[in-house]
Amino acid sequence: MDSGDSGRNGGAETGAIWAIGLMSGTSCDGIDAALIRTDGRSIAEFGPALTVPYDSTFRGRLKSCLGLTARNGGGRVDAVERELTERHAAAVSQLLHKAGRKAGELAVVGFHGQTLHHAPVHKETWQIGDGALLARLTGIAVVNDFRSADVAAGGQGAPLVPIYHAALAAALPKPLAVLNIGGVANVTWIGPSMTSDGGEAGANLLAFDTGPGNALIDDWVLQHTGHHADLDGALARQGQVDAAALAKLQTEPFFAVTPPKSLDRQHFKVVAAAALAGLIPADGAATLAAFTAWAVGEARRHFPAPALEWLVCGGGRHNPVLMQALRATLQCPVRSANEAGWDGDALEAQAFAFLAVRALRGLPLSFPGTTGVPRPIPGGRRHPVPAAV
Q1: Alpha carbon distances (Å) from 167 to 130, 200, 311, 354
Q2: Would you state the pLDDT for residue 193?
Q3: What is the pLDDT of residues 343-371, one digit of tens each?
Q4: Inter-axis angle of helices 269-276 and 215-225, to 10 degrees?
Q5: Which region, left, alpha or beta, applies to residue 200 given φ > 0 means left and ψ of -120 to 50 means alpha?
Q6: Looking at residue 372, what DSSP letter applies?
Q7: Predicted confidence band at 225 (pLDDT cuts at 50, 70, 90)?
Q8: Are the CB atoms for 177 and 259 separated by under 8 Å?
Q9: DSSP codes, 310-360
């Protein structure tokens, strides 16, 4: 690894620079923050990472905003957006302390924000989070609004992490599938000719949302037990998959759509409520875990060639019932991304640090095979550190 360049002038250079990535995902459970050194094509060094959970009160306020759009929700989310941004600034401060670094050593913060509404068919996507405020609070330049340019160009706006998956997987055997199970699940298929810097992507990088991840399970468990997640799959393990309910879920039209395709967290909410009506909590949890695994299995129909292995990241990999269902469905090696030397909890935060550096350098964030855009598209909105008054 070369020593690279550091500091806030790094965006004008070509060497590796330090960047922080921040992710508040569709599970709405907290902030993941990660530090990496990268040139936007490969990873030179991994720094520390941390997670800052949301307290139940703020989590409830945040989830109450889900589904609002920029047209009807602006005034209703202002206070939540400010608090969300302040919490992200605190996460940056905690991570810098953990790393023993100062803000001036960082080139950029990649700030995903919180997705409230995602409807690319209407060319709409809305992530709240005040990039200018975050730059002022942290003293570090910020890149946010990663998805809008892609959606405006006709893409799905998601997933954006595949180019980072490709960089991580440069030395691994391929074809390889990387499955991220957050609130929504998405997969990246990396072909045998994929280059470490992303190359032209094309036929060697394919990505799309597979269906539900943890969101349906989390919401079901919260409704019936008051807990925010099915820890260790304990509730699902006590239940039985209801075949009739599962069959109803499998008729959702999303699964007949050819990629590229992406989902809003709320997409399956109505159909799931109808299909699971009358089930006991344990059977509902078991059925939803089976549904998530089945949806992942369906994704294989779209791969140009079978994956030799599946690496699983995101919170869903901590659910042993879900991991067992995936292995039974996929019938090939399935392991946690951590077993490949990756940090499966910090991976998406790392990805937004990587994407922020790519944005600084004008490199594309999305590709025809990942979001359906007609050509590789750069993106992100830059917010410099305001000049001292």
Answers
A1: 29, 13, 14, 10
A2: 76
A3: 998 999 999 999 999 999 999 999 999 99
A4: 50
A5: alpha
A6: -
A7: very high
A8: no
A9: EEEESGGGG-HHHHHHHHHHH-S-EEEGGGGT--TTTHHHHHHHHHHHHHH
Picking from 252, 270, 248, the residue whose alpha carbon sits closest to that of residue 261 is: 252
Residue type, 288: L
- Mean pLDDT (whole number) for 34-42: 97
The pair of three-digit structure tokens given for residue 170, joined into one six-digit string: 């440069």
Query: Does residue 125 carry a pLDDT above 80?
Result: yes
User: One-letter amino acid identity for 172?
Assistant: L
Query: What radius of gyration do the chain's Cα atoms show?
Result: 20
Q: Residue 75's pLDDT band (boundaries 50, 70, 90)?
A: confident
In the chain, the amino acid numbered 281 is: P
Using DSSP, state whether 381 is helix, strand or coil: strand
Question: Is the distance from CB of 59 to CB of 29 less than 8 angstroms?
Answer: yes
Rounded to 10 degrees, what is the CA torsion of 56, 49, 40, 300? -60
| Main-chain dihedrals φ then ψ at residue 382, nearest 5 degrees | -95, 140
CA–CA distance from 61 to each of 49, 66, 84 (Å)? 26, 9, 10
**Cis before residue 260, ω within 30 degrees of 0?**
yes
Closest CA to 310 of 219, 204, 182, 174: 174
Query: How does DSSP assign 179-217, residue by residue?
Result: EEESSEEEEEEE-TT--TT-TT-GGGEEEEEEEE-SHHH
Domains along the chain? 10-157+346-383 (3.30.420.40), 162-340 (3.30.420.40)
Provide DSSP, 41-106.
SSEEEEEEEEEEEPPHHHHHHHHTTTT--TTTSHHHHHHHHHHHHHHHHHHHHHHHHHHT--GGG-
Is the preceding peptide bond at 175 cis, omega within 30 degrees of 0?
yes
Residue 16: in which H helix or E strand, if any?
Answer: none
Beta bridge partners of 124: 119
Percent of the chain beyond pLDDT 90? 84
Looking at the predicted structure, is the pLDDT value of residue 14 above 90?
no
pTM equals 0.90
Per DSSP, the three-state class of 128 is strand
